[in-house]
Structures are given as structure tokens and as C-alpha cells.
Amino acid sequence: MTAGEDEIGVDDIKAVRAEGRSELRALMRAQIDIGRSRREGAPKSATPRPPGHRPGAWPTGSSTPGPPPEWSLPAAAWDAAVRHYRNEEAHPDAPCDCGNCLEESR
Predict the structure, then answer these.
(1) Angstrom distances, CA of residue 77 to CA of 54, 73, 84, 90, 98
(2) Does residue 103 contact residue 95 with C-beta atoms inside 8 Å?
(3) DSSP readout, 21-81?
(4) Is residue 95 helix, strand or coil?
């Protein structure tokens, strides 16, 4: 091999074979080491520092918004709405018996 070259030529292989198997093994191991050093390359940089906030999280010192205003309706209002919806879905032609609907408006 010539100085400064990392690649093996055909003439180099012939010369190493003439010297013996141990020389060929040493040459191949040297080539593997050269390949590993190329692959490893420069050292990896340190991981970047996290930003000043956690992405997606609420800012420090604040809280999430409260429940929507419609959640504060009394349970009786929810029950009446569900009953009205069920009556409309199950019996679309019959008058609603939820107590909130007027039969004349239907």
C-alpha cells in the first residue's frame, strides 16, 4: 500500500498472500478498524437544552379553564333534554311527552 491511501489494491493483496495468512488477517483487521473510525466520525454534540416551557402544557402559575357553562345546568334540565331527544328519535310522528313541548307547535 502506498502512503496515505486507505484502500487496498490487487497488488497489495497478492503481496500480503505471499507473506502468509497471518499477514492477510492483520491487513483485513486494519481495514475494518479504518472503516469503523470513518463511520464513528466526529463526536456527537450534547443534547440541546429544553425550552423554557413544556410544549403543550399550561404556563407556570396558571390553570386550565374551568368546565364549560353548560355543565352547570341542573340535572333536571339534562334529563328533560334527553327525554325530548329520545321521544323525537323513537316516535317522530307522535307528539312529544317531555312536558316542554307544545303539541300545537308540532
Answers:
(1) 40, 7, 11, 20, 11
(2) yes
(3) HHHHHHHHHHHHHHHHHHHH-SPPPPPPPPPSS-TTSPPTT-------GGGGS-HHHHHHH
(4) coil
Measured distance CA(105)–CA(95) in Å, rounded: 10
User: Residue 93 corresponds to which cell in the numbers above?
Assistant: 310522528
| Residue given cell 454534540 in the structure block | 45
Which grid cell sits at 33? 478498524
| C-alpha cell belonging to residue 82 | 334527553
Q: What is the tens place of the pLDDT at every residue in 29-67?
A: 888 888 887 776 667 788 887 767 666 667 777 777 788
Query: CA-to-CA distance for 54 and 85, rounded, in angstroms?
Result: 43
pTM confidence score? 0.31
Task: Give kind and range of the element (H or E) at residue 85.
Answer: helix 75-90
